């Protein structure tokens, strides 16, 4: 039996320490995921908290059949998609660390955010899961409930489009 199965069983029995262990285990992953979708720390934290709130509300009906992280990604992904539908502006997440050229870092981040924002939802999702969440393509297929060949196609297509969008952004600056 995997650790999540036992942890979820304990949570269903009402053990508060199990809830805390679960949140500590998955909160950083989901927060990082939400940050890539929103680029706003405060909003990313709100989305992350809402993800866990929804998970715990449905805990009594949750049937563990693999990784709990996949289910959390699905919930967070739906919340992030709702945010995209609202068409809010993306904000800068943070300034670069000391020693890095602030203007170059800000420009690169803004270019990447704009390029990601231009991608269709299904392409943006696989890029975030694969490159920023460092998930394997097979895991992404499970999370999105699509076939592995489709995930591979989406990654390839998204990389192609990002290259075009980023190149166009660089040419405008020159």
Quick take:
With 174 residues, the chain is mostly helical.
Task: Tell me about this structure.
The protein is built from eight helices and no strands. By secondary structure, the protein is mostly helical. Helix 1 crosses helix 2, helix 4 packs across helix 7 (137-144) and helix 7 packs across helix 8 (148-173).
Beta content comes to: under 5%
User: What's the overall average pLDDT, rounded?
Assistant: 81
Give the C-alpha Rg: 18 Å
Number of strands: 0
SSE pattern: HHHHHHHH
How far is the N terminus from the C terminus? 57 Å
Helix share bin: over 70%
List the keywords:
mainly alpha; 8 helices; 174 residues
What layout of secondary structure does this protein have?
Blueprint: H1 3-12, H2 16-38, H3 41-57, H4 68-85, H5 102-118, H6 121-132, H7 137-144, H8 148-173
Helix pairs in contact: 1-2, 2-3, 2-4, 3-4, 4-7, 5-8, 6-8, 7-8
């Amino acid at each position: 039996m995997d650790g999540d199965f036992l942890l979820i069983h304990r949570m269903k029995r009402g053990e508060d320490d199990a809830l805390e262990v679960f949140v500590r285990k998955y909160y950083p992953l989901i927060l990082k995921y939400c940050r890539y979708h929103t680029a706003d720390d405060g909003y990313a934290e709100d989305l992350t908290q809402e993800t866990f709130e929804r998970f715990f509300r449905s805990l009594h009906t949750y049937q563990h059949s693999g990784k709990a992280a996949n289910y959390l990604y699905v919930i967070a992904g739906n919340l992030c998609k709702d945010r995209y539908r609202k068409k809010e502006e993306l904000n800068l997440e943070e300034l670069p660390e000391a020693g890095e050229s602030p203007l170059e870092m800000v420009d690169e981040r803004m270019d990447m955010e704009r390029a990601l924002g231009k991608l269709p939802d299904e392409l943006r999702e696989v890029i975030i899961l694969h490159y920023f969440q460092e998930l394997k393509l097979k895991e992404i297929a499970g999370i999105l409930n699509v076939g592995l060949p489709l995930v591979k196609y989406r990654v390839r297509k998204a990389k192609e489009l990002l290259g075009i969008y980023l190149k166009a952004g660089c040419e405008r600056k020159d």
